[in-house]
Amino acid sequence: MWDKLALILLIIGGINWGLVGIFEFDMVAWLFGGAGSVISRAVYILVAISAVWCISLLFRKDEELAVQNIDR
Fold first, then answer.
1. Where are the alpha helices (DSSP H) in 1-72?
2. Quick one: pLDDT band at residue 48, thresholds 50, 70, 90?
3. In which band, very low, low, confident or very high, does the pLDDT at 59 lie, cut at 50, 70 and 90?
4. Given CB 3.0 to 4.6 Å as the disulfide criterion, which of 6, 14, 25, 62 pairs with 53?
């Protein structure tokens, strides 16, 4: 469950960065009242935590991931 949640947050963050890079439009800041608002900062922090969590995916053994998928 945590892996999927982290991936969803990373997808949201990736789309937001794509919008910033292409159109100079920060959707998170736009939705929540600016980049400095508490909610925007919370979203940015959650995306960063998700990225750190997903680093662990790189170091997990394939067998361990397969067992986790079977258990779900």
1. 2-23, 27-32, 38-59, 62-71
2. very high
3. confident
4. 6
Task: Classify the C-alpha dihedral 54-55-58-61 as positive or negative.
Answer: negative
pTM: 0.77
Which residue ranges make up each domain of the chain? Answer: 1-71
Instruction: Report the distance separating Cα 5 and Cα 21, nearest Å.
Output: 24
In 3D space, the residue among 11, 18, 5 whose CA is nearest the CA of residue 53 turns out to be 5
Q: What span, in angstroms and rounded, lies between the C-alpha atoms of 38 and 30?
A: 13
Tokens standing for 5? 């949640």
